[in-house]
Amino acid sequence: MEITDSKEIEEILMQAQVLHLGFFDEEYPYVVPITYGYEEGRIYMHCATTGKKIDLIRRNPKVCFQAETDVAFNDAPKKTSGIALAYRSVIGFGTIRILEDNDEKREGIKVLAAHYNEKGVHVQRPDAMLRNVAILELTVDHMTGKQHD
Using an 8 Å Cβ cutoff, are 36 and 47 in contact? Predict the structure, then answer.
């Protein structure tokens, strides 16, 4: 069943633990699982300052993302398999950028840290540390939700 309520879609993003991020690559799509934080139409992630993700972002910043929560197998005697998969999921599209400003990087890290553990929000992040990490900001263009009970 499609989820059309934007608040419910955002709730799924707030609860999910892993985001699957899809990039344009030459012959095949390239999808990676990544930790993230969501706030007001933006998704923040971190990664190494060099590598395939960074190269793909520089070539084409348009991405697709997907996350799911409430995943559970249930008995479904009428189905051939005898089981059904329950879940709530989000799929969306947007534009990603590599943050350069250290203050923006710190804010992105705070959103990401708060997604997993509020204590991480208060960790000091000096400029020297920020040079060694890429912080990515994905601006969501649109997203949809789906659930199966």
Answer: no
Cα distance between residue 49 and residue 77, in whole Å: 50
Would you call 33 helix, strand, or coil by DSSP? strand
> What integer best gives the mean pLDDT of the chain?
90
Cα-Cα-Cα-Cα torsion 21, 22, 23, 27, nearest 10 degrees, comes to: 150
Whose tokens are 């095949």? That residue is: 28
CA gap 49, 71 in Å, rounded: 33
Token couple for 49: 């300052």
Question: Is pLDDT above 80 for 128?
Answer: no
Start-to-end CA span in the chain (Å): 9
CA distances from 25 to 20, 30, 34, 93, 104 (A): 15, 6, 18, 16, 28
If you average pLDDT over residues 144-148, what whole number do you get? 93
Q: List CB contacts of 17: < 8 A, sequence separation 6 or more.
A: 35, 69, 116
pTM of the model: 0.89
- Per residue in 44-85, pLDDT (tens digit) is 999 999 999 999 999 999 999 999 998 787 766 566 666 777
